Amino acid sequence: MKIVTKSEILTVLRQFDPLLDVESGFVDYSKGLACIPPVSELVLEKGEVHIKCGYLKAGVHYVIKVASGFYGNSVLGLPSSNGLMMLFSTETGEAKCLLQDEGILTDHRTAIAGAIVAKYFAPAVVSAIGVVGTGIQARLQVKRVSQVTGCKKIIVWGRSTEAAERFRRSMQVEGYNVELIEHLESLAGKSNLIITTTPSSRPLLSQNMIQAGTLIIAIGSDTPEKQELDTDILVNATRIIVDSKKQSLTRGEVSRALRASAIGEHQVFELGAEIAKGRRPTMATETTVVDLTGLAVQDLKIAEFVLNRIN
Amino acid sequence: MKIVTKSEILTVLRQFDPLLDVESGFVDYSKGLACIPPVSELVLEKGEVHIKCGYLKAGVHYVIKVASGFYGNSVLGLPSSNGLMMLFSTETGEAKCLLQDEGILTDHRTAIAGAIVAKYFAPAVVSAIGVVGTGIQARLQVKRVSQVTGCKKIIVWGRSTEAAERFRRSMQVEGYNVELIEHLESLAGKSNLIITTTPSSRPLLSQNMIQAGTLIIAIGSDTPEKQELDTDILVNATRIIVDSKKQSLTRGEVSRALRASAIGEHQVFELGAEIAKGRRPTMATETTVVDLTGLAVQDLKIAEFVLNRIN
């Protein structure tokens, strides 16, 4: 079994971009070419662990991905997220590769999903990118979505003003024009592309804050409990897109709205199927919500991408 | 992360016996001290993969175990079973150890479960150990159960006479007195401790074959579909024991009998709880069926055992 270290992975990610591979994963998934069992979850006293696995029917590997969040780690000077990915042969079951990514491949494939969403569904002109949250995912999303949209104007809100100020300073150094705001109303009023990246379990944004014509990329909620968007936003959206219709029945913003019968399943479209239709102009008044809960096919694609670049 | 090779694992297993550790795992499990989510399953064209995970509430590690069976591997000169185990910190989520066991730790912890069952529930005098199946699990079970019971008389039945003959010869060399029989009736007539180890999905043994006073250890069936024992055997058993009452609702011999309403949940007892009561004399006419579908707590215990002996 090949063992790949975090620093080798970072080197690959600095040189090459897995975006097109992950994008093709979403398309294959929506064509029914992937087998993905339900996510396995371990809830511990100090953290939670998600185990995702799956394969593409025509593929040579199955993936097992472990991603954990231990929210007290920062006190110990450790990052809260951790994890690894493994590839096994779909022909013989043999372990082929361990990627000791410590969670960064999950961070990257998630940020890439945001970039893919922006590539297909961003407003024609993005006035500013609003980002809710100041962690690693907020940073990666801003970088990737900015690259796709060309917008360097960032509005940021964080629960901790200190963390938000750190975010502002470091992103400023990297060439972004970052405005830190205190109230989410102002964030939504100034941005027509909003990315939510917190582990909140109470809605942070509500319909009355949102401008018509906004794209909302909802990243934070990936369990039945977590929630960043008031259900009203989904009820009033022009379109609702998820990475997996099946997974959205039990996880993420959409699952809540479905459980409350605020929206119907027929209103929910799948990312891979929408991508397959190709890019089309976005209407100025169209509000789109894209709810991402994370798919094993993203893990499979980014793991294979790194393995192929290292071999 | 510490990486432990298969040969290091084999060295540890030759020197030390994890039986008492696995036994305490069953007891802790039945005391409600373990958190074990449902088994995750990948069904591929050429094989199947089970992913088990879990932890003990007072423990320092959570385990993720991958075990696969690819039944066409023998044509390629590869063993059909494969897999690995990983230990992560329950405090921080950090990966602590990868055990590249290629499936042997699953083989051993399963055989150890058989030995634990024999230790507590074998007839006072074992006339012969009957074993159904001739693969690696059949061999390991015979060795371990023979050690516990002191019985070296083995009756073996296999679907392939060639494989059964190979089993007979190699076990004979290791000092066992092995009789190969053609019909399962004779196996059950000559043995009062029977171990079933095949991936059969049709019953191989039925009630009319079984002598009163027999202990049956059912290893092979660990999914809703697999079956080695006719339901009549469960209906007529003096007692039925499973490794996990929860898992037996959906997996193994007992799940079939429960689904068919042939037995009731109140008739099913849990191994760890029975062990905790201590050994007691077995009545000569008492027929016991123990149905094992495999628990993550066994994986956790054997993985920690190996790690502690290597450190």
TrEMBL record, chains A, B:
Identify one Gene Ontology CC term for this UniProt entry. Answer: cytoplasm
Q: Which residues form a coiled coil?
A: none
Return any one Pfam family short name. Answer: OCD_Mu_crystall
Superkingdom, taxonomy of origin: Bacteria
Q: Which InterPro entries match?
A: NAD(P)-bd_dom_sf, ODC_Mu_crystall, ODC_N
- Name-wise, this protein is Ornithine cyclodeaminase family protein
State the species of origin: Alteromonas australica
